[in-house]
Structures are given as structure tokens and as C-alpha cells.
Amino acid sequence: MSRARDIEQRAAQWLVAREQPDWAADRERDLRHWLDQDVAHKAAFWRLEAGWRAADRLAATRASVPVAARRSVPIHRAWAIAASLLMLCLASVAMWRFLPREPDAAVVRVATGVGMRQQVRLADGSAVTVNTASRMRAAISQGARRVWLDRGEAYFEVAHDRRHPFTVFAGGRKVTVLGTKFSVRRDGDTVTVAVAEGRVRVEDADAVTGERAAIITAGDVAIARGQSMLLADRSEQRVQDSLAWRRGVLTFDQVTLEQAAHEFNRYNVRQIRLGDAQVAGLRIGGTFEATNIEAFTRLLHDAFGLHVATDKDGVTIKS
């Protein structure tokens, strides 16, 4: 027996068992565990479940059957239905392989260097601004609108289409919208989503249920790392400030110099280095040209009397 066939049969067994009156919480946990083990498990289960529900709706149109009676399907009959569904799915897969297929959507790829940003218009009318040192792929077709942010940051102005959600995959997270404006940023295993207009749904990319999903609106920020997700209400103005990079500037509001240097270093090959803990903890605010570290460090020298030493690799700041 092939692995795919084995998975299909196991999925059918789970589906039948879940319909029985003695289904309990520990069995539900076992099912979730099995689904989380492999994406192929989820695909097989969802496919059979969709067929099961379709059969259920079809039966409902032919006869009025009490709900309790439907739930207590005799085990031999349930196995027969599951076996039929399994054969139907296998036949569908076989037919799908031989049917003419629509050509895959053309993939748009954008990659930017340090200090660069690029705007791109997608086939559905959506616009994307890709920030410094970023890499993005987009596949837009009549059936789906999908973007993968492989690295860096991007700002999305999504054309409204209620029938075709726009989905951004970043790290282990999936961001889904119908038409709005928001940004997604990846820093290692951390994904940050900031909403400028409308609302977006943020969830695990491989989520089976909506248990770890959140809806955030204009002015909200979601920061996800691993299994955790923090939601913050920063106000629409603060979100706009965080998106100032689209104009080539960085806006800070009482952040530490360490945080500001980290942001500058995203946009410059020559790096800002901090010489001691005291200068790293200094708090600053203001708006600065993102690619001009000389102007930024001169202001630090003039305002705080900090020592600035320049070499070919960057600038060192000491107290």
C-alpha cells in the first residue's frame, strides 16, 4: 500500500470515528495530534470531510432526517460511506492528473539590496512597496492571490475583491485580507504586522482551527514569534510613523539609541556601532534620512556631546 493510500485510509477512519456518539475529548486531542504530524494528513482529512459534508447536504435535500438519527450512523454503514468517499477521492485525484490544467499563475519576484526599495503593481491591481534588503514572490491568478515574503519588509495596498482573499505568507504566519493597507516585516523568526487601514487576519500558516488567529484593525500591531503572538494598540499615527520608510526616512519616538542604530543598519552597508552601554541606552526622537548615517551621527554629537569616530566600515559612537 502506498503512503498516500495509507494516509487516506487513516483519515477515513478518523472521520468515521468522529461521527460516533462515544467521541470524547481525548480522541479529539489524538486527532489534532495526528493532523499536526504532517500536512498530507490535513489535506487528506479535509478532502474527505468536504466530501462527507457534501453527501450530508445531498441527503438532507432528499429526506427530512432527525439530527440525532444522522449522528448515530451504524458503524457498518459509516464504513461503507467512508470507503465510497475514499474511492471517489482517489478517482478524482487520478482524473485530475490527466485533465488539462490551467497554466500556473506567473510568479512575480522582487529582491531589493541594502538601502533600496521598489514598488510593483500586481495583476489584480494591488500595489506593493518592498523595503530594504527584502525578497518577495507573488502569484496572482483568477482563483487565488498569494504572496510570500521570504525576507525583509513590504507594504501592501490590496485591491478589494471579496471573492478572492489576498494572503501573505511570512515565516510561520499567514495574513489574510480582502482589501486594505498593511505592512509585514520579518526579523529572524519574528513577524510583525501593522495595519494602516481596514482589518486583517493573522494566524499560523498551518493552522487547522482558528484557535491562534487574531483580527487586527487600523492602528493595531501584531508581533508573532514561535507559538506566541502579542497584539498592541499603537494608534494610527504611530503605525504611520513606523511606515515612514516609504518616504526614505525613519521616525523615532523616545526609542533607545541601540534600537535606532539597529534600524539605520538595515538601510546602510556602513554600520553604526555603539561603544558602551550608556550610549546604547540613550533615548532619542525625531525624523532622519534613512541612508545618511553621517548626518544622524553629527546630530548626536551636537545634541549630546557624544564622541563619533568614522572608518571605512562605519561609525563608532561613544559617550
What does this protein structure show overall?
There is one protein chain. With 319 residues, this protein is α+β, with helices and mostly antiparallel strands. 36% of the residues lie in helices and 34% in strands. It has nine helices and 18 strands. Strands 1, 2, 3, 4, 5, 6, 7, 8, 9, 10, 11, 12 and 13 form a 13-stranded mixed β-sheet that branches. Strands 15-18-17 form a three-stranded mixed β-sheet. α1 packs antiparallel against α5. The longest helix has 24 residues. The N and C termini lie far apart (71 Å). About 8% of the residues have low confidence.
Strand percentage lies at 25-35%
Count, helices: 9
Q: SSE order, as H and E?
A: HHHHHEEEEEEEEEEEEEHEHEHEHEE
- Major pleated sheet: 13 strands, mixed
Query: Could you give the distance between the termini?
Result: 71 Å
Radius of gyration: 26 Å
The coarse overall form would be: elongated
Estimate the helix proportion, in percent.
Answer: 25-40%
Record the SSE blueprint.
Elements lengths: L2 H16 L6 H13 L1 H24 L4 H5 L3 H24 L8 E5 L6 E4 L5 E4 L4 E6 L4 E13 L8 E5 L2 E5 L3 E7 L2 E8 L1 E6 L9 E4 L2 E6 L2 E6 L2 H7 L6 E8 H11 L3 E4 L2 H4 L2 E7 L3 H12 L2 E5 L2 E5 L1
Parallel strand pairs: 5-6, 15-18
Antiparallel strand pairs: 1-4, 2-3, 3-5, 4-5, 5-8, 6-7, 7-10, 8-9, 9-12, 10-11, 12-13, 14-16, 17-18
Short description:
By secondary structure, this protein is of the alpha+beta class. The chain is built from 9 helices and 18 strands. It has helices at residues 3-18, 25-37, 39-62, 67-71, 75-98, 236-242, 257-267, 277-280, 293-304, and strands at residues 107-111, 118-121, 127-130, 135-140, 145-157, 166-170, 173-177, 181-187, 190-197, 199-204, 214-217, 220-225, 228-233, 249-256, 271-274, 283-289, 307-311, 314-318.
